[in-house]
Amino acid sequence: MFFFHLLTSGLSNGGLYALVALGLITIYRATLVVNFAHGEVFMLGAFFGYMFHVTLALPYPASLALAVASSLLLGMATERIAYRPLVRASTVSLVLASVGFSFVLKGFARVTWGGKGDYIPFPPIFSFPPLQVAGLIIVPQNLVILGGALAFMAVLWAFFRYTKLGKMMRATAENQRAAALVGIRIERVFAVTWGIGTCLGAVAGLLMAPVTLLYPDMGATLLIQAFASAILGGFGSMPGAILGGFIVGLVESFVGGYLGSQYITAAPFVIILAVLVVRPAGLLGTRAVVKV
User: How far apart are CA 201 and CA 195, in angstroms?
Assistant: First the structure.
């Protein structure tokens, strides 16, 4: 029973890490930029849901849809304000712009919701108590998190595989110059890519919001875990981001359950270091070949 509880908890956390890592990878593959404000995107997704559902008293489905739509617009605005003016600048400039924008988003959250207290509760989707099935205790919210994460991963896979815009984004990620030569509007693809990547982080925030308290710095730790997941799976590989997210989530859960909570933070990084010694490109990553 205890093992099953740790398993479901690890899988649900892993799904969140995988979603945020997928958002990072989606933006990176198209633009070669690591969005260090992605943790704040996760945080704002949760606060958007709170604003629509609690403050404006809208129904849960409408609140979630509006929160995701708001995050899409936020991502596109981020690309337009913080990235596009520096598109030809150095990597250091892009990183600094991304970090600076993260502080802007945190400041916005503090100004907008700071008066309600540092930690704000978010009502769960399902309020009934844990279920007992064949002697096993199942926490409904863990199933909601895992199911929602898997559903959005499936939607993202179908989008990239079957839609014209998804294929354009894949072409841009493979070769920006070739994509521009065949008539793909690179700037538009970049804007949509940032929007979709931001949506993935916001969805993770909405799924996690009912099991934690909302506060402006809540995205910092998750960004580190998601970044670690992406590196473990192979930075640039979407399947690797999913695999890495679930591995990190399961390692945290089982180490915390059997060894103690003091080891939760360090344990995934020990696994990552061990993997990178054997496979420097990550579990599913590939070595880049550069001609000089």
Answer: 10
Contacts of 249 (CB under 8 A, 6+ apart): 10, 11, 12, 13, 14, 15, 16, 17, 18
The contacts of residue 239 (CB under 8 Å, 6+ apart) are: 233, 284
CA–CA separation, 60 and 198 (whole Å): 21
Closest CA to 26 of 208, 162, 153, 178: 153
| Average pLDDT of span 78-96 | 81
3-class state of residue 166 by DSSP: helix
φ/ψ (deg, to 5) at 121:
-75, 150
Q: State yes or no: pLDDT of 119 exceeds 50.
A: yes
Total number of domains constituting the chain = 1
Q: What would you measure as the largest C-alpha separation in the chain, in angstroms?
A: 62
Say which CATH number the domain at 114 has. 1.10.3470
Reported pTM: 0.88
